[in-house]
Design goal:
Order of helices and strands: EEEEEEEEEE
Distance between the termini: 19 Å
Strand content: over 45%
Structural class: mainly beta
Number of helices: 0
Number of domains: 1
Strand order of the largest sheet: 2-1-5-6
Radius of gyration: 19 Å
Number of strands: 10
Largest sheet: 4 strands, antiparallel
């Protein structure tokens, strides 16, 4: 089973047990996180697509660690003016392990 989720303005295809790097979420390492913005769920040939999201579906995961991504260099200059500016940036990211995909169907409820 897999799901397509949306977080941080991006979309990710995830399965149970996947380790994904996403935009920073609030929480510390070991915290449980639920992502309710599920756009699609698929299993084999059966695919369920939301309009735009699936109502009761959610993806549950655990934060592995909070880290910073690779350095991005921003360089600006204006020719023949002597203007140069160099700046670096490292975005905060969350490493998330997907533990469960809940479809919200009646068969999923205990």
């Amino acid at each position: 089973m897999y799901a397509v989720i949306q977080t941080g303005g991006k979309q990710y295809r995830v399965s149970q047990g996947d380790l994904i790097t996403i935009e920073k979420l609030d929480g510390a390492a070991g915290d449980r996180v639920e992502i309710a913005s599920v756009l699609m769920i698929g299993e084999g040939n059966q695919v369920t697509v939301g309009q735009p999201q699936l109502g009761q579906a959610r993806v549950v995961g655990t934060i592995v660690r909070q880290e910073r991504g690779p350095k991005i260099v921003i360089y600006k200059h204006k020719r023949r003016k002597g203007y140069q500016k160099r700046q670096g940036h490292r975005q905060w990211q969350t490493l998330l392990r997907v533990s469960e995909i809940v479809t919200g169907a009646a068969s999923d409820q205990p």
